[in-house]
Each structure stands twice: as structure tokens, then as C-alpha cells.
Design brief:
It is built from nine helices and nine strands. With about 350 residues, it is an alpha+beta fold. It folds into two domains: about 120 residues, NADH Oxidase (3-Layer(aba) Sandwich); about 170 residues, NADH Oxidase (3-Layer(aba) Sandwich), CATH 3.40.109.10. The chain is globular. It binds flavin mononucleotide (FMN).
């Protein structure tokens, strides 16, 4: 690990960056991460008390959520003028120690890249939007940019464009929902995490659809019903979904790949937000072993490990969606013993 011993960085700046990073998406808004902060470093740990075993038996969603917060942190630090060097999984004996980030003040803080500032703004604007999207195509130039953002983080973003792959993916989502909903442990876990938010954890009713059925052929996970109304849909008659479906994949399927896939998901969603697009992660078909294999073999051609499905498209007009709550940032931070 880097033994950098330069000047300590400003503690308040680091806390503010962690606070902004905590806006990262996470499965059921579980925020399964904690931080240990030293004078020149920030360490990211998975918070195993916030793992959802009935939904996420493999821990994939937990690793992806931690990858998303790591990428959010990198953006927030860079926008605050701090240079960060990231060592992923720095200690083979500590599986929950996901990243060690060495910090130093960047030379010439006036030169914070405009792109980083734009992404930092997108952190506050991004929402998981579970409604139907409109019918306008996502321009191919935008798709190319999202594919490039994923590649920069070491992941592959595949567009599910042909009718066959789209049908297979939608079928896998429906099958996964049926299998999960037949498990009482899954039903109890979903009820405990959604439809209310306690101490800044979980998804409140205002972010959940009153009627999830009908979002893109049942792509929406059935949560506890909320108070959010569907958009009119692409034909303006309350049906269908104009969302583009994308699958993020990686060459391997270990914790490092899942962490990197989370970073890529964050990079893609923040970039999409900058482009004015709505996004919604869909992890259900990858939480069930048999539907995950279907996505791997019949949607990705057996060449990649699927990590996350994303819906991307044009949100219905009207007021922006409200933000989901977050835990108090100080409850997530420990100071490194001196
Ligand atoms: C790994 C992962 C899996 C997710 N899976 C789903 C999902 O299957 N369905 C869904 O509606 N939202 C899903 N989400 C979105 C979260 O519910 C959402 O990020 C969280 O409630 C916080 O809300 P926000 O994204 O609007 O800030 C997922 C997010 C992550 C990071």
C-alpha cells in the first residue's frame, strides 16, 4: 500500500466529500458501507449488518452498492480539489475492506476538471426513476458515451437492442420475480426495507410506484406500494415503456469485478443524469441463480458475467422526483486510531 506521508488533508473537506458520496444508489437504499478516515486516507468497508441475505444471497448487490459509493467518492474528492489513489481490496485477510484511498491536495486546485464538477452536480440530481419512460429514442451518441464511461471503469455495457434478447431479458425479470416472491424470507425482507424509511435507511413510499405493474412488461420490482404515479408511457395512453435496457457485465465474477461494476454503474448513471436521462437499476434477474444464467448465456452470449441491468430513457415531465433519505454521515465514519 502507498506509504505517502505528506501533509494531512483538511478533515472537513473529506467529511463533506463522504457526505456527497453517500447519495450513491444502493440496493433498497441499504447503504451497506462504512468509512475509516485517517489524516491522509479514507478506507471503505462493506457494512455486513446491512446485507440483505434473502434478496442478495451472493452479496453481489452489496458489492455493487459499495462500488457505486466508491466512484461517487472519487468524483466528490476530485471536485473538492483532492487527488485520490485507490487500492481496491488492499488486504487479502480482510474481505470487507474494499478500498484504501490515499489523499493529497491536488496541485493547482483551480484546475478542477469541469467534467468532475458536472458529475458532482449530477450526484445531487440523480434519482432512481421507476416510472415508465417516454418514447423518444436515446440518441446513439449518448449510448456510445455511456458505453465509454463503463469501459473506463473496467466494465462492458451491452445494449439489449434486438427483439429476441429483449424478450429473453424481460422473461428473466418476470421469472426472477416469481421465484423470489414465493419465498417468505424475501417477502419479509422486502417489506422491512421498502414502503418506509427508518433512520435514513430504506425506500419511502414517495419513491415507490402506486402501481408497479406495467412498467416495461413488468420490469419494476414489486415493492410495498407507494404514492408515486406512473408516467403516461410512450403511447400517452398509460401503457408500455420507452426505456432502453442495458446490461453491465465484467470478464470475471469475483468481488473485485463486482466492485468495479458498481463503479461503472455509478459512472454510467451520473453521465446519463448529465445528459438529462432518467435511470433505474434492475438487479432482480441477477439475484436468482437460474435467471442469471439465462441473462449470461442468452442475452450476453455467454461471454460476460452480468452484474446489473439498467433502464435508461426520458422521464415523464412534471416535478423532479424527491430524493430518498440517507443515514447521518457521522454514523458511517470512524476515525483511524492514531
Ligand atoms: C446494486 C443495486 C441494485 C438495485 N436494484 C434495484 C431494483 O431491482 N429495482 C429498483 O427499483 N431499484 C433498484 N435499485 C435502486 C435503489 O433502490 C436506490 O438506489 C435506492 O433506493 C436509493 O434511491 P436513489 O437511487 O433514488 O438515491 C438498486 C440499486 C443498486 C445500487
Amino acid at each position: 500500500m502507498n506509504q505517502y506521508t505528506g501533509p494531512a488533508v483538511d478533515e472537513r473537506t473529506v467529511r463533506a466529500a463522504i457526505d456527497l458520496a453517500s447519495r450513491a444508489p444502493s440496493v433498497h437504499n441499504s447503504q451497506p458501507w462504512r468509512w475509516v478516515v485517517g489524516p491522509r486516507s479514507v478506507h471503505l468497508y462493506a457494512d455486513l449488518r446491512r446485507w440483505l441475505p434473502a434478496t442478495d444471497a451472493d452479496g453481489r448487490d452489496m458489492a455493487l452498492s459499495c462500488g457505486a459509493v466508491l466512484h461517487h467518492l472519487r468524483v466528490a474528492l476530485s471536485a473538492a480539489g483532492l487527488a485520490a489513489e485507490v487500492h481496491r481490496l488492499p488486504n487479502p485477510d480482510e474481505g470487507d475492506h474494499l478500498a484504501a484511498v490515499t489523499l493529497r491536495a491536488a496541485k493547482g486546485t483551480g484546475a478542477v476538471a469541469e467534467a468532475d464538477l458536472g458529475l458532482a452536480i449530477a450526484i445531487s440530481e440523480r434519482r432512481t426513476d421507476r416510472r415508465r419512460y417516454g418514447s423518444w429514442d436515446v440518441p446513439s451518441a449518448f449510448v456510445d458515451e455511456m458505453v465509454a464511461r463503463a469501459a473506463e471503469q473496467g466494465a462492458v455495457l451491452r445494449v439489449v437492442s434486438d427483439g429476441y434478447s429483449r424478450r429473453v431479458l424481460l422473461g428473466a425479470i418476470r421469472d426472477a420475480a416469481r421465484i423470489q416472491e414465493s419465498d417468505p424470507r424475501y417477502r419479509a425482507e422486502t417489506a422491512a426495507w421498502t414502503g418506509m424509511a427508518v433512520d435514513g435507511l430504506g425506500v419511502p413510499p414517495r419513491n415507490l410506484l402506486r402501481d408497479p405493474v406495467g412498467t416495461g412488461g413488468d420490469t419494476a420490482r414489486r415493492f410495498t406500494p407507494g404514492t408515486l404515479d406512473q408516467g403516461p408511457g410512450p403511447d400517452g395512453e398509460g401503457a408500455g415503456d420507452g426505456a432502453l435496457l442495458l446490461v453491465l457485465g465484467t470478464a470475471s465474477d469475483d468481488t473485485l469485478s463486482q466492485l468495479r461494476a458498481g463503479e461503472a454503474a455509478s459512472a454510467v448513471m451520473l453521465h446519463a443524469t448529465r445528459l438529462g436521462l432518467a435511470t433505474c437499476p434492475l438487479s432482480q434477474p441477477l439475484e436468482v441463480g437460474e435467471t442469471r444464467i439465462v441473462v449470461r448465456d442468452r442475452v450476453l452470449g455467454g461471454t460476460l458475467s452480468p452484474q446489473l441491468v439498467l433502464r435508461v430513457g426520458w422521464a415523464p415531465g412534471g416535478k423532479p422526483l424527491p430524493a430518498t433519505p440517507r443515514r447521518a454521515v457521522d454514523d458511517t465514519i470512524e476515525r483511524m486510531p492514531r
